[in-house]
Design goal:
heterodimer; A: 589 residues; B: 334 residues; mainly alpha; 13 helices
């Protein structure tokens, strides 16, 4: 009895299945998916031929042809991003993927100009600094409206600043309690409340805002230009409260429409945008989340997206040589390096460090692994930064010299073991498990470096672990010798050099990266951080870079100009070194 | 039947408790403090301490587990660390996408796999048998990742007949109801969206369905071959029955049993395959969400989703067991 109904059940099941697949397969002809696609079936296909083939269901091709290529909507710019935004409240986020979205919606007092980190006016028309560098007065633009129709004015600036700085501000407090942080505010301005370097922000009149600082801050304007310090409509912020991540309201050229998690964020042009000369050229912007690099490139090739980040180095040449596409290189704002952990006894000898540096063939590495978008690094700052020292002569690649240096340092037979935290251990070289703009393929690069070192008698074992653990171990000083890099936040040399080489007031070794402690370098950098004239600061940074190089405090390997790929009909995309460009100039022709 | 059912259901409980303990325990054994990861490199010790407090990471581990289990029984799987979303609610929102993908893949697997297996067995040694088993072997050995990219390259980039990924076109402003887009578009009477959703589903379903399809085809073939060599089949032939009647009514019915088991197991595997497929095809289901969460050490999501997948897996297997018992009367007395 039950067998009969079993059979019926299966018949029914099979029927449903067949129906489903007939429908599902209508546009896709070969359901059995052969490994090598058969040659026929090009665009000009067979409509008349109704061939009778017994048994095999491969005749369906005629259904394929009528289905047209999806209609191209030219009022929309679709950008393929590498991942999902974390949050769309600029004050809370630190990641570039979120930042690129909020950058279209929000604006700050100043911004980075085009493809540089030069600071130009945005919502502030102009500004003045007091002689002691402690008071900054900004004149605001008139007639600027938020997306919710409210006015942008000095009061809005003050309220936003209160939200970021004041831990007793109800919205700030609620965000913290909900698990959010204001990481960048804390990092760029020294902390919250009384710890903040900014002691007072006041509205002098509706179009004038005055900032009072505890002490002059060299990178102040560069900090203000970051995507983080951009303004919310205070009304909208109050309404959004802890839901601010999902409900962004600013003054930018595009306003927020919808965020479909793991799919896309949609924006639409803001009709009342103040800057008529730079009003958005496309009606809509869609930022799609396509996590896989190959899949993203295929989406670009299929015409489903107009532009993308995260192009693999190996695909750069193909994009460059194909007239259907356009390659844009983002000006370098990254540096990949090999860091010494100074808890390793041997690394405290400059001769050993120099041997490690001279044994690496940086030139070959850059040529092999950066797809033509990399450049050899000889110092920490990329050449685009104004603190860059172009006069530094890098250590030459010289295996024999490296061997000699090691011998002079007491290692005539090379180095395979080191004294780390008092114990003799085999020397491990750690590479990152993820690719980053500064190291597109860390494992390959690590292998090349290790091979170079081996020629000079430096024998390392390669190690890695998942990314979060990697960062954790590095922070706890558990990696003796490792690869990492830095991408600048605000285009200021301070953000590169001082962040890693400025010691605290007690001159304790820097735990952030390798417990380095060099007072000479640190003092110069600290001095540069409080001067406000750029020319004077530049000299100090160049001096510091020279010292860092001569002492081989770290080995800088490469800068990279991350490649972006676009359809040939996309114009006006200007890639900024900070990765947070504006989409209002983009046109899809 | 009822006794068997109750017995099976009870064996499932320890499995689920075991899974929840393993997931909970393993995640905490991995080095890397979630508070540090979440707050990033610039975090101050005070902030880290505060977040640990919020996440309950300061409590003893067994206490954390019981709190987790108690909440889970009430349907509360916690709140995500990075994006502050309630995990249960997010599973409800994202799972339909995975269901749609998995069902599509099963359909592909069954509709192609079973007939291919039957025909191969009946025409053993024929060119059809050779070719389809060769394809099946290739299918089993094929990495989903690569297959997915090849399908996209061929159908989306070269032929322009199907989209490369996603569930709907970027310009679509369709409002889902249940988030099963095929169903929702029909419910709303929006046939255009239905077709669009179907077109987006086709390639991921084929990519995900290929391995189970190949396994099912091979399993059906060998089960059929075994049955076809039995005496009663010879008798049926001797009685002068038509080939089709012998194959469908006599042989296939007995060959079903091992095939059902394999189908059941494959359904479970599809969930893990879905993780890769969802990444290649930018499919917004729970698989990709889980992978992202693992990278960011978002404990509540990883725990919640793993537990949820385990429940689904166990549920599917239970259903298969029951089906099996139903199909073969000898089993229920074991």
């Amino acid at each position: 009895m039950s067998t009969v109904s079993t059979k019926r059940l299966f018949v029914l099941f099979a029927l449903v299945a067949i129906l489903g697949v007939v429908a599902a397969c209508a546009p896709a002809p070969t359901p059995s998916a052969p490994a090598t696609p058969a040659p026929p079936a090009k665009e000009t296909v067979v409509v008349k031929e109704t061939v009778m083939v017994a048994g095999t269901p491969q005749v369906v091709e005629k259904v394929v042809t009528p289905t047209p290529v999806p209609p191209k909507v030219q009022d929309t710019f679709i950008f393929g991003a590498q991942g999902e935004p974390v949050c769309l409240d600029p004050a809370i986020i630190t990641d570039g993927i979120s930042g690129r979205v909020t950058n279209q919606i929000f604006e700050g007092l100043v911004k980075f100009d085009k493809d540089t980190t030069n600071v130009v006016p945005s919502l502030a028309e102009k500004w003045t600094t007091s002689d002691d560098g402690k008071t900054w007065t900004f004149t605001l633009r008139k007639g600027v409206k938020f997306h919710d129709g409210t006015d942008f004015n000095a009061d809005a600036v003050v309220k936003n600043w209160d939200y970021w700085r004041n831990t007793k501000n109800p919205t700030h407090d609620a965000q913290i309690k909900a698990g959010q942080t204001f990481e960048y505010y804390e990092a760029q301005f020294g902390g919250f409340d009384d710890n903040s370097i900014i002691t007072k922000v006041e509205a002098v009149d509706p179009t004038t805002v005055r900032f009072t600082l505890k002490e002059p801050q060299g990178p102040f304007l560069n900090n203000l230009a970051m995507f983080v310090f951009t303004f919310w409509s205070p009304t909208a912020l109050e309404k959004a409260g802890t839901k601010s991540c999902q409900n962004p309201v600013g003054t930018g050229p595009y306003k927020f429409v919808e965020w479909k998690p793991n799919e896309q964020v949609s924006l639409t042009a803001f009709a009342d945008y103040w800057d008529k000369a730079n009003a958005p050229k496309m009606k809509n912007v869609v930022i799609r989340n396509i996590p896989n690099n190959s899949a993203r490139l295929l989406a670009l090739s299929a015409g489903e997206i107009h532009g993308m980040e995260g192009l693999e180095p190996r695909d750069v040449a193909a994009i460059q040589n194909n007239p259907k596409f356009k390659l844009i290189l983002r000006p370098a704002n990254t540096t990949g390096y090999v860091a010494f952990n100074y808890k390793v006894k041997e690394f405290n000898d400059p001769k050993v460090r120099q041997a490690f540096a001279q044994a690496i063939n940086k030139d070959a590495i850059v040529k092999a692994f950066y797809g033509g978008t990399g450049m050899v690094a000889k110092e920490f700052q990329p050449p685009a930064l104004w603190g860059y020292n172009k006069d530094i002569q890098d250590w030459a690649y010289d295996t024999a010299a490296a061997k000699k240096l090691l011998a002079d340092a007491g290692f005539p037979n090379g180095i395979s073991q080191v004294t780390f935290d008092g114990k003799t251990v085999p020397l491990e070289f750690w590479y990152m498990p993820v690719s980053r703009p500064y190291y597109p393929s860390p494992k390959d690069i690590a292998t090349a470096i290790a091979a170079d070192w081996a020629k000079a008698g430096i024998n390392v074992s390669l190690q890695t672990v998942d990314w979060a653990t990697y960062l954790d171990k590095r922070k706890n000083g558990q990696l003796p010798l490792y690869m990492l890099g830095w991408t600048g936040d605000n285009g200021d040399p301070d953000n590169f050099v001082c962040y890693f080489f400025c010691m605290d007031a007690k001159d304790t070794p820097i735990t952030r990266e390798g417990f380095v402690a060099d007072k000479e370098v640190s003092d110069i950098l600290k001095k540069a951080a409080v001067i406000t004239t750029q020319a004077d600061r530049a000299k100090l940074y160049q001096q510091a870079e020279k010292l860092i190089h001569d002492k081989v405090l770290r080995i800088f390997v490469a800068h990279n100009q991350p490649p972006l790929a676009f359809a040939a009909n996309v114009e006006g995309y200007i890639a900024n070194p900070t990765s947070t460009e504006f989409f209002n100039t983009v046109v899809v022709k | 039947m009822l006794r068997y059912f109750i017995k099976r259901v009870f064996t499932v409980l320890p499995v689920l408790i075991g899974v929840s303990m393993l997931v909970f325990g393993f995640l905490r054994l991995i080095p890397g403090d979630p508070a540090t990861v979440m707050l990033g490199e610039r975090a101050t010790p005070e902030n880290i301490a505060r977040v640990r407090e919020q996440l309950g990471l300061n409590k003893p581990i067994y206490e954390q587990y019981f709190i987790f289990l108690g909440n889970a029984l009430r349907g509360d799987l916690g709140t995500s660390v990075l994006r502050q979303e309630p995990v249960t609610q997010e599973i409800v929102r994202r799972f339909p996408a995975t269901i749609e993908l998995t069902l599509g893949a099963i359909l592909v697997a069954l509709v192609v796999g079973i007939p291919a297996g039957i025909i191969s067995a009946v025409r053993r040694g024929s060119w059809f048998d050779t070719v389809s088993m060769l394809i099946a072997l290739t299918g089993v050995s094929m990495p989903i990742f690569w297959l997915g990219l090849m399908l996209v390259f061929f159908f989306a980039v070269s032929l322009h007949v199907l989209p490369t990924g996603g569930r709907l076109e970027a310009s679509s402003n369709f409002e889902p109801i249940t988030n099963l887009l095929l169903l929702d578009s029909l419910l709303r009477g929006d046939f255009g969206t239905f077709l669009q959703a179907l077109r987006h589903l086709a390639l991921p379903a084929i990519a995900l369905g290929t391995i189970p399809m190949a396994i099912i085809a091979r399993m059906t073939r060998s089960a059929m071959l075994e049955v076809l060599s039995q005496d009663y089949i010879r008798t049926a032939h001797a009685k002068g029955l038509k080939e089709r009647t012998v194959v469908i009514r006599h042989a296939l019915r007995n060959a079903w049993l091992p095939v059902i088991t394999v189908i059941g197991l494959q359904v479970g595997r599809l969930l893990s395959g879905a993780i890769l497929t969802e990444t290649v095809f930018s499919w917004p289901g729970i698989g990709r969400w889980l992978v992202d969460a693992i990278y960011t050490r978002d404990y509540p999501i990883v725990q919640g989703v793993t537990l949820f997948i385990a429940i689904v897996f166990v549920g599917v297997n239970l259903t298969v067991d029951l089906l099996y018992a139903w199909a073969d009367p000898r089993i229920k007395f074991e």
